[in-house]
Automatic annotation (TrEMBL):
It comes from Chlorella sorokiniana. The lineage of its organism: Eukaryota, Viridiplantae, Chlorophyta, core chlorophytes, Trebouxiophyceae. SUPFAM superfamilies: Growth factor receptor domain. It holds the Pfam family Ephrin_rec_like. Residues 1-22 form the signal peptide. Residues 920-952, 979-1027, 1046-1093, 1096-1134 form the Tyrosine-protein kinase ephrin type A/B receptor-like domain. This is Serine threonine. It comes from the Eukaryota. InterPro entries: Growth_fac_rcpt_cys_sf (IPR009030), Tyr-kin_ephrin_A/B_rcpt-like (IPR011641). PANTHER family: INSULIN-LIKE GROWTH FACTOR BINDING PROTEIN,N-TERMINAL (PTHR46967), KERATIN-ASSOCIATED PROTEIN 16-1-LIKE (PTHR46967:SF1).
Length: 1155
């Protein structure tokens, strides 16, 4: 090898050796020492972070000269993890974290840490140890206050706040050391290096060898140690936090109690407050996590009962909200024990008004909420209201409303404002203004620090409280005023900007009830402006975008107007969409923003409208109309009842006389075969009328005038525009041949009246009558039957009855023309008769209201006779009191006689067989038979549809309404069977009830409609069937309609009801709703398909309206689950609920007694 190369290799080897020596500077000095606290003096020293977390500690020096600490305490020591100004600690919920077990990072002790004899010099082992002691509790995030000086001397490590005249001093005795440290005796090769008693208080902190059998003072425990040289001594160490000592040893504090100082002398008397717990050996009482509660002195927390919640750590009770008002379910609320109940939780909406709030200058961001910074009216003359949406689990979403500067829920800072000029942007994000809060008690609402992953958080805390009795007594608060406060809090241990400032504001409950005020909720009947009443009037809801709300009523903005704000109080909040923007946008009614692309929708041509699908003007369909260029009516409107239209109509046309339209939107009915039938045709027996003309069909007996100008029953010339069909009443009929009086209807061709359609009712002619509403089978005026007369008439000028003096009906032609419209008949009285000649051309007598008295030795023995009977030989006619003529025969007076009958009279007969019975008299025709001529030898059976009421008739009378006779014969008319009806006289058959109707009685002239919830799908029904479950009918139904999915109906229902939250119906025709299955939620009415529970939630039972967040230290990563999974060892959820995953945490051992 060349000499030059050998030299270079030597240089490299020397450099490597030097580097290795530097890297292992402490390889010969490495080791550890253990030390325990035996003295802590000065204000707060016994409960400081150092005393709590490091009462027993192991210090390690590694080969690289780095110093590490390890706590040898057995756990149970806790330090705060949420911070606020000390004056506000009582209003801020508490959170703790356990003391760490090791230091967060090593600290270098320099290149030669042991060589220095100056135990306070920088860069030495002692300097590194002091640094670690400062940073240990909060892992470097903040130095422990009051640690500024350290020295190691005579086996004692002294830490104090200053080198000269210290006020806080901690002293540790070194129990063991395997390295050489100035002031620390050591045994070569390692071993115990203990203090000798120098710098220790005799008989308190140690006992010399002569007194080694003495017991240490209470709060301490003794340990005998032997220095490297000299006699053994007993060191009296302080019992760590979470324990107490009797001088011989330390005992863990009982469960339900805590001790946060070292050197405690007894088990504490005081117990943990309600809402906190201690499992035993705790330095502090820990707040119960969300979802649990505790009574005072609890060793552990109790999970809230199913359906109840606690959100704020440290809760003494669990609640559920009904209509948004908290009900205590378990624990204690305001000193009262809570009782579980089975009421379902339900949300509610409540409203607060605010007063002017002057914000403290020192309470700045991030402790100042955006809602105050952005809602500008709060600082001056507030228009702001706070809408509280309280869920069934008593969580609260607080939104600003009514303040125009901060109530647009679509606002995102920096984004373009919809409907305004380009470059106009939002100055706030609405979601940043929303405050999430929770009921802590029934009279207190609180917020929590928001979570932000692993980073520290600074935020405001908010409280809404019911004022105290003292505040009421001092008139600080009155009526429904509440106390709203803001202050600062953080989980940043190093924060230095916390102040004692509090922003306090009076707010007033003006809708619903908040923290118990008012005691009786302001419900939907008294909603403040800016809110509207819920469907059940239980609460007041913030007026949504696109609407304004006054006096509890929500009104949508008109089309081409929009309102982006929540809580608008008046119509002025709806502003018209700008016509100057390009492109131009408009809106539909009830819009929050103008987002509909604008087209000129005011079509100019009659009968056209703007169609959104084709984006052009289209023809209005038949039955609708629209005038061109009508800016107030852009859509085709349905024709009113009484009118019709063809397609593309600019207006609707009145129905011609004799036709009608009963509803909106009738299309022209004309066809090639019936060009003049524009509206609907009334059935035979009815006429088309307007609503004003449709007088009730009743007898007029009060001399009311019935002229052609004011009553449709007297051939009135009726105009068009009819909306109903009215059956001609008694005494009239619909004469389809009389159309001449119908005037020409505006908008129709002359004489455009549908042929063969009656346009008015006509009085029945003289000598005829008609009873009941006219119908296709009962639209004929029949001759008044022989033996009867008209009881009441509708005449051309006056209604008269029998015996009326206003008008006398005689056989004179002039009088007979007036005697019309008989609608009620009665039998001729005894002694009188009435009859018709052949063909019913002439009635005797001529006046229809009268009957003729018997004459010429004849008599009428019973009412309703058509012909008088001749008295037998030897008798003469006589008249009874009250009879209208002779009604019986009496023997001739002495000296007088009459001959026998020589021939039969009508209605009787004489047998032709010459039998003895036929020699002297005629026999009356039996019932339901008749004889029309004189000299009859037999009687004729009554034809079908007719009968007689007695014997001796010359004709048969028509069966009455509700009765029929199917075939001719000597049988009477019978009642129409149940399920059928007869609405005319003279019927020989019945009509089955149409579908949708029924009758369960015989002898009916009409059928009843099936009620809602029932149907009749066959003709002739005697009863209606009940609609099966899942179907409905609204009345007179032939079939039942199925409910759609999301709705249900029990059997016999008239309406489909929406499924309630917590239930669903996934198929049509549901008779009931199913309970939402486990793992799913049904949050709204009319649910068709349940929703999977989101990750982080679960539903353990059927019928959940909302899934439950996973409790603290449980998680669920999947959707649709029925339970949550507990966090694995060494993992937790950092005290949060509703988590999808757990986070890794440090695990410490259990505390052990130290003797």
């Amino acid at each position: 090898m060349a000499p030059r190369r050998v030299a270079a290799l030597a240089v490299c080897l020397l450099a490597m050796a030097a580097g290795a020596a530097a890297a292992n500077e402490c390889s010969s000095k490495q080791g550890f020492l253990t030390m325990e606290l035996f003295s802590a003096t000065g204000t707060g020293a016994t409960s400081s972070e150092l005393a709590k977390c490091l009462s027993s500690v192991k210090v390690t020096l590694d080969t690289h000269c780095n110093v590490d600490l390890e706590s040898l305490s057995s756990g149970g020591a806790f330090i705060p993890s949420i911070f606020t100004d000390s004056s506000l600690a009582g209003d801020t919920y508490k959170q703790f974290k356990e003391c760490p077990s090791t230091s967060a990072a090593t600290v270098s002790a320099g290149t030669n840490p042991i060589a220095s004899t100056d135990v306070t010099a920088t860069g030495t082992f002692t300097d590194a140890l002091l640094t670690q002691l400062k940073k240990f509790a909060y892992q470097g995030a903040r130095d422990t206050a009051g640690l500024a000086n350290i020295q190691i001397l005579n086996g004692i490590v002294t830490v104090q706040d200053k080198q000269s005249g210290p006020t806080v001093v901690y002293k540790y005795a070194i129990k063991e050391a395997t390295m050489t440290v100035p002031g620390v005796p050591s045994v070569p090769g390692g071993g115990v290096a203990t203090p000798t008693g120098t710098d220790m208080v005799a008989n308190t902190e140690y006992f010399a060898n002569a007194n080694i059998g003495q017991t240490c003072a209470a709060g301490r425990y003794g340990l005998v140690v032997k220095p490297p040289s000299g006699a053994s001594i007993k060191v009296c160490f302080l019992c760590p936090v979470g324990t107490y000592g009797d001088g011989n040893g330390c005992t863990a504090v009982s469960a339900g109690k805590a001790s946060d100082t070292v050197g405690a002398t007894q088990d504490p008397v005081a117990t943990c407050a309600a809402g906190t717990y201690a499992q035993g050996g705790n330095s502090d009482c820990l707040p119960c996590p969300a979802g649990s509660f505790s009574a005072a002195g609890a060793g552990q927390c109790t999970d809230c009962p199913a359906g109840s919640y606690s959100w704020i750590p440290g809760s003494a009770a669990c609640y559920k909200c009904i209509n948004g008002v908290p009900t205590c379910m378990a624990g204690s609320d305001g000193g009262s024990t809570c009782t579980n109940n089975n009421d379902e939780p339900s949300p509610g909406y409540h409203v607060l008004s605010v007063s002017q709030l002057n914000w403290p200058a020192n309470l700045a961001a991030p402790y100042k909420p955006d809602i105050y910074a952005k809602c500008s009216s709060w600082a001056s003359t507030p228009t702001l209201q706070l809408a509280l949406e309280v869920a069934g689990d008593c969580s609260i979403t607080i939104r600003p409303i009514t303040d125009t500067s901060c109530s647009d829920p679509g606002a995102v800072s920096g984004q373009q404002i919809i409907g305004q000029a380009a470059g106009t942007t939002y100055q706030y994000t609405y979601n940043d203004l929303i405050i999430r809060a929770y009921y802590q008690t029934s009279t207190a609402i609180r917020t929590q620090l928001p979570t932000d992953g692993a980073t520290t958080v600074k935020s405001f805390m908010m409280a809404i409280d019911k004022p105290t009795p003292a505040e009421y007594s001092a008139s600080t608060y009155t009526g429904n005023e509440l106390k709203l406060r803001f202050w600062g809090a953080t989980d940043d241990v190093a924060a230095s900007d916390l102040t004692s400032d509090v922003a306090t504001n009076k707010v007033t409950a003006i809708g619903g009830t908040v923290v118990g005020l008012p005691a009786s909720a302001i419900d939907g009947t008294n909603c403040p402006d800016g809110t509207y009443a819920s469907d059940d009037d239980n609460y007041c809801t913030a007026c949504p975008q696109g609407h304004y709300c006054a006096a509890g009523v929500m009104t949508p903005c008109d089309a081409d107007y929009a309102n982006p704000l929540l809580g608008a109080k008046a119509s002025g909040a709806c502003t018209q969409c700008s016509a100057s923007l390009s492109p131009r946008f408009t809106s539909l009614p009830g819009a929050g923003y103008c987002t509909v692309k604008y087209f000129e929708r005011n079509c100019q041509t009659d009968g056209t409208y703007w169609d959104e699908s084709s984006m052009q003007c289209e023809d209005c369909p038949a039955g609708t109309f629209r005038a061109g260029n009508d800016a107030n009516n852009l859509e085709c409107r349905s024709c009113d009842p009484g009118t019709y239209s063809k397609a593309k109509a600019g207006s609707c046309t009145a129905c011609p006389a004799g036709q009608y339209s009963p509803s909106y939107g009738l299309a022209d009915q004309s066809t090639a075969n019936e060009p003049r039938l524009h509206c609907l045709r009334c059935p035979v027996g009815s006429v088309a009328l307007t609503a004003a003309e449709a007088l009730p069909a009743k007898f007029i007996v009060d001399n009311s005038v019935l002229t052609a100008t004011d009553d449709y029953r007297n051939d009135k010339a009726l105009p068009g525009g009819a909306t109903v069909c009215m059956a001609c009443p008694d005494g009239t009929f619909a004469d389809k041949t009389k159309t001449a009086k119908a005037p020409t209807v505006t908008g129709t061709a002359p004489n455009e009246v549908y042929a063969n359609t009656a346009t008015s009712c006509t009085l029945c002619p003289t000598g005829t009558y008609r009873i009941g509403d006219a119908s296709p089978m009962n639209n004929k005026c029949n001759p008044i039957p022989a033996g009867y007369k008209a009881k009441t008439l509708l005449v051309g000028t006056t209604a008269i009855g029998a015996g009326a003096t206003e008008l006398v009906c005689t056989s004179n032609d002039a009088d007979k023309a007036k005697c019309k419209g008989a609608f009620e008949i009665e039998a001729c009285g005894k002694g009188t008769v009435s009859s018709w000649n052949a063909g019913f051309i002439e009635r005797t007598p001529g006046a229809p209201t009268t009957c003729k008295s018997c004459t010429n030795n004849e008599y009428a023995p019973r009412p309703g006779m058509a012909k008088c009977l001749a008295c037998r030989g030897g008798t003469k006619p006589a008249t009874s009191n009250g009879a209208g003529g002779p009604d019986y025969c009496t023997p001739c007076d002495a000296g007088y006689f009459r001959g026998a009958l020589t021939a039969t009279q009508a209605g009787s007969y004489k047998a032709a067989d010459g039998s003895a019975d036929s020699k002297d008299f005629c026999t009356q025709c039996p019932m339901n038979s008749y004889a029309t001529r004189i000299g009859a030898t037999g009687c004729i059976d009554c034809p079908r549809g007719t009968e007689t009421q007695d014997e001796g008739n010359t004709e048969c009378t028509a069966c009455a309404v509700g009765y029929y006779k199917r075939t001719g014969g000597r049988t009477s008319c019978i009642e129409a069977e149940a399920g059928t009806f007869v609405n005319t006289t003279g019927a020989f058959t019945t009509t089955p009830c149409p579908v949708g109707t029924f009758t369960d009685k015989a002898g009916q002239d009409s059928c009843d409609p099936c009620p809602a919830g029932q149907y009749a799908n066959t003709r002739g029904s005697q009863s209606c069937k009940t609609c099966p479950a899942g179907t409905i009918s609204i009345g007179q139904a032939a079939t039942c309609k199925s409910c759609t999915a999301g709705f249900y109906a029990p059997a016999g229902s008239g309406i489909c009801s929406p499924c309630k939250p917590g239930t669903f119906a996934d198929a049509a025709r549901s008779g009931s709703c199913k309970r939402c299955p486990k793992g799913k939620q049904c949050p709204t009415p009319a649910m068709k398909v349940p929703q999977d529970c989101p990750a982080g939630t679960f539903a353990a039972k059927d019928g959940s309206s909302l899934c439950t967040p996973c409790p603290v230290n449980f998680f669920q990563a999947s959707r649709g689950q029925t339970k949550c999974t507990p966090c694995a060892p060494n993992y937790n959820t950092r005290g949060q609920t509703g988590q999808r995953a757990c986070s890794l945490v440090r695990v410490t051992g259990l505390r052990r007694s130290q003797l």
